[in-house]
Amino acid sequence: MIPDYGNYKKLADSLKSASALLNLERKSQLHQDIITICNHLVNPSFRVAVFGPFNHGKSTLLNAMLGNRTLPIDLIPTTGASITVKYGSDVRTRIMLVDGTEIYRSGTEILQQFAILDGNRQMRKDVASVEVFCPHPFLETGVEFLDLPGTNDRDEQDNLVREQLLSADLVIQLLDARQLMTLGERENLRDWLLDRGIKTVIFVANFINLLEPDEQKQVQNRLLFVAESFRAELPPGFSNLYRVDALPALRARLKGDVAAANSSGLAAFETALQNIVGILQPNRGSVRLPRVEAIASQVQHSLKAKIDPIVIELKSFDNKQNSKIEIKQKAANLIYKGFTTSVGELRDWLALPKLLTKYQADAAVALAENNFKVWQTNTLKKDLNQLQLAAVKWLYQAYEFFQEERPQDLLIPFPSEPQVILPPKPSSTDDLSEPGSIAVGGGIGWLLGGPVGAAVVGSISYLLNKNIQKQDEQLAKESYHQDVAKLCITAIEDYLSNFSKQGLSILNEYEQKSDKVICFEVSQEPIEFTNKRENLQQLQNGFNQLLRELEKVKILSNHQFYKEIPKYSNTKIKYSPQPKRVQISPEKDPDVKRQQENTAKNIGTRVESVSTSAPKASPSPRPEEVEAKFRDWELNEEIARMKAEMPSPGFKTAKQQHTTQSNQAPNQPKTQTEKDKITRAYSILGLPANASLAEVKQAYRTLVKKWHPDLFVNQPQLQKQAQEKMHLVNEAYTILSEK
User: Fold this and answer.
1) Any residues with CB less than 8 A from the CB of 611 and at least 6 apart, and which?
2) Largest CB tally within 10 Å, which of 15, 357, 468, 666?
3) Quick one: how far is CA 37 from the chain centroid?
4) Following DSSP, what letter does each residue of 206-254 receive, concatenated?
C-alpha cells in the first residue's frame, strides 16, 4: 500500500503549528523530536539506522554490507556525525555546514576531516549534515543507511543519536557478545526506542567469533532471551536476532571470499534484511505513525496544560459578568413592569369617560358654588400627583440603579379655570317647584345666591343622574336653574376633555423617554481577558486541527475536540427591556420565551461558557462580594415589594401602606403550633418577640453576611454547617415576614 503523503504532510504541518503554540525552546528535546519526525514523515526514502555503543563495530558492519571501506573505521570512537549513505552513480561525499556552506568531494576521504571526533573526542559543531553516495543495488531501491555516532561516550553524541533514531524506519541494534546488554543498553532500549514507538528493531550480535566455543553457546542462549523479551514489530516469519562477525565479514568482502562471508553470518543477515525492508517499505507509514502518535500525545498534553487553566479563568470571569448582567436585567424588567403598570393606571385615569364619571358632578357643583379652585387643588390635583409620583418613582429607581440618563419629572398642567356666562334671569321664579329643584346645600351659591343658587346645585345632580339631556324635548320651556346647571356641566366637560387630551399627550411623550432611563450599558471587558480569549482560540484551534489530522491517518486519541468558542462582541451595547417580556409569561407563551433568549443573545454580553473537559473552578468569594450580592438581592426584593404595592386611585400610597404595616401589630396566630413556630423564628434570628418587620429584615441581613455558604467554598465542613444554619435562618425569615 502506497502511503498517503498528502495526509502525512497535513499531519506534519498541524504538528508543527500546534507545537509552535507551546513556545518551546529550540534546543528542547520535544522541539527537536517534532522537527525530526515531521521531516521524516514526508521522506520518501526508507531509512535503516545502525545503532549501538561506541566500538561495537557499527561502521565496520556497514562497510561489510557496502563491500568497501566507505566509512571511517578505527579502534577508538571515530564517527562524530550522523552519516547518511544514499544511492549514487559513484562514491562521493556532501558536507553541509551550519552556515549554509556546501562541500562536495569525490570519494570519502573528506570524512576524515568533518565526520570523525577530534583529538579531544568532540563532535564538530559547524557540521549540519553528512551524506555519502554509493552505487549499491540495495540503495538504488530507495533505501538509506544511517551510521550513528557511538553512544555511552558523550552526552552530546547521545542527544544526536536519540534525535536521529526517530527518523529511522528500521533500527539495527549492534550488540557486543563479550558484554551482552549492559545496563546502559537496556535503558536506551526502553527510553530511546520502546517509549517512543520505535519497535521495528533487529538485534545483531558482533564479536561472537572472539569467544570460546562453550562461551559462544551460552551467549547464544542469552541472545535468544534478549530477542524474545523485546516485542519487535517485524513481518511474520522473520527473526529479530542475527549473528554477524563484522570485521571478518568486511575482510571477506574485500577479498571476494564468498564462503568466508557466508560463515561470518553476513549473507544470511543481508538476505533477511532485504526481505524485511521489501515488506515494510511499501507501507512505511505503519512504521512511522506510532512514533508520531507518541510525540503528538506529548504535544496534546502540553496544549491542554495551557488551555484548561485559561478556560477555568475565563469561565469564572464570564460567570461573574453574566451574574451581574442577569441581576441588572432582572431589575430592569421589574422596574419596567412597575413603570408600565403605573403609566397604565395613569392613562386609564386620564381617559375622558373615567374623568367624567368620577369628577364631573363634584366639579360642576364646585363651579356652581364658586369653589372650583379649591376642588381642583384638594381633589383633582391630589389624585393626579399621587398617580404621577407612582410612575416617576420607578424612573428614579432605575436611575439610582443604572446611572444612565437622569429622569425628568412628569408634570401634567391643568387647563384654565372654566368660565360660565349666565343667561338672563326669568321674571318669575315659580319654576323652583319643578321636579329636580332640590337644594343640596345651604351654601351661598354661585353669583345667584339664595334658594335659586341651591336649586342650581340640585339640578346639576339631577341632570347628571337622570340624564335628562338625552331625553326627548318634552318640555317646551326649561327652568332657569336647569339652564344654569347645564352650562356648568358643559363647562366641566370641556375642561376635563382638554385636561384628558393634554395629559395623555404628555404621558405618551414621557413614556417614550423612559427607554433612556430604564436601561443599562454593558461595558467592554478588560483588554487582558480579550487577549486571553484570542490566545485560547488559537490554542484550541491548533489542538482540534491536530486531532483531526491524527484521525485521518487512523491514530486514535483519548482526547476530545474542544467546541468552537462563539465570537465575543466586545462593543458597548445597551440593554432595554422589551414590552412582551413583561406582558406575557414566557412559561405560557413559547414565542415570548424564544424572544427573550434571542434578546439575551443579541445583547452580545452574555458570554457563552467555554466548552472544555477541564474541571469546574469554585473560587472562594470575598466577604465584600457576598455583601454586594446581598445588596442586589435586597434591591430586587424591594422592587418586587413596591410593584406589589402599586396604588390605585383612592387608596393609600405604597409608602403609606408600608408605614402603616410596619407600625401595626402583626396578625396574631390562631393556634399554639403557630405561636411556637413564631417564637422559635424570633429566637433563630436573635430577636425579641414581636420585633418589627424592619428589625427582622436587618437581623436576616446580618446573618446572611455571616453564614453565606459561598464564604466557605474551600472548607467543606464549615460550608456544610453554614448551609444548615442558612436553612434555619431562611425558614425563620419566611415565617416572620408572612405572619
Assistant:
1) 562, 563, 565
2) 15
3) 35
4) E-GGGS-HHHHHHHHHHHHHHHHHS-----TT--SEEE--HHHHHHHHH
Predicted confidence (pLDDT) per residue in 31-60, tens digit: 988 998 898 888 889 999 998 887 788 888
What is the DSSP code string of 67-128? Answer: TS--S---SS--B-S-EEEEE-SS-EEEEEETTS-EEEEESSTTHHHHSB--TTS---TTEE
**DSSP label of 434:** S
Cα pseudo-dihedral 544, 548, 551, 555, rounded to 10: -50
**Range 544-548 contact pairs with CB under 8 angstroms and sequence separation of 24 or more:** 545/14, 545/17, 545/18, 546/14, 546/15, 546/17, 546/18, 546/296, 546/299, 546/300, 547/300, 548/14
The DSSP element (H or E) to which 9 belongs, if any, is helix 5-20
Sheet holding 127-134, edge to edge: 102-106, 92-97, 127-134, 83-87, 143-147, 46-51, 170-176, 201-206, 241-243
Residue located via cell numbers 356652581: 368
- The full 3-state SS of 348-414, as one line of letters, equals HHHCHHHHHHHHHHHHHHHHHCCCHHHHHHHHHHHHHHHHHHHHHHHHHHHHHHHCCCCCCCCCCCC
Contact present, 131 and 103 (Cβ < 8 Å): no
Task: Give 153: exposed, middle or buried? Use CB within 10 Å, 0-12, 13-18, 19+.
Answer: middle
Alpha-carbon gap, residue 496 to 655, rounded angstroms:
29
Q: What is the pLDDT of residue 123?
A: 61
How many beta carbons lie within 10 A of that of residue 352, not counting itself? Answer: 16
Written as one string, the DSSP assignment of 153-222 is S-HHHHHHHHHHHTT-SEEEEEEEGGG-S-HHHHHHIIIIIGGGT---EEEEEE-GGGS-HHHHHHHHHH
Alpha-carbon distance of 455 to 476, in angstroms, equals: 20
In this structure, the number of other CB atoms found within 10 A of the CB of residue 485 comes to: 28
Is the separation of the CB atoms in 90 and 135 below 8 Å? Answer: yes
pLDDT at residue 25 greater than cutoff 60 = yes
Confidence bin at 685 (pLDDT 50/70/90): confident
How far apart (Å, rounded) are the C-alpha atoms in residues 494 and 354?
A: 14
CA 481 – CA 478 distance, rounded (Å): 8
Please give the helix or strand (H or E) that residue 6 lies within, else none. helix 5-20
* 50 phi, psi to nearest 5 deg: -105, 125
Task: Report how far apart the first and last C-alpha atoms of the chain are (Å, whole number).
Answer: 84
> 570 near 275, Cβ under 8 Å?
no
- CB–CB of 163/32 below 8 Å? yes
If one counts every other C-beta atom within 10 angstroms of the C-beta of residue 391, the result is 24
Dump pLDDT digits (tens) for 689-705.
Answer: 888 888 888 888 788 77
Main-chain dihedrals φ then ψ at residue 139, nearest 5 degrees: -70, -25
Q: Is 496 left (phi over 0), alpha (psi -120 to 50) or beta?
A: alpha
Query: Rounded distance, CA 530 to CA 316, Å?
Result: 14
CA-based R_g, the chain, Å: 49
Q: Is 432 exposed, middle or buried (0-12, 13-18, 19+ CB in 10 A)?
A: middle
- Neighbouring-strand partners of residue 201: 171
pLDDT of 510-524, one tens digit each?
999 998 999 988 888
Please tell me the predicted confidence (pLDDT) of residue 446. 41
C-alpha 567/C-alpha 57 separation (Å) is 61
More confident residue, 451 or 527: 527
pLDDT tens-digit series, residues 626-646: 555 555 555 555 555 544 443
> 670 CB contacts (<8 Å, ≥6 apart)?
none
Residue 581 has pLDDT above 80, yes or no: no
- Backbone φ and ψ for 520, nearest 5 degrees, come out as -150, 150
Question: What sign does the dihedral 623-625-631-634 (CA atoms) show?
Answer: negative
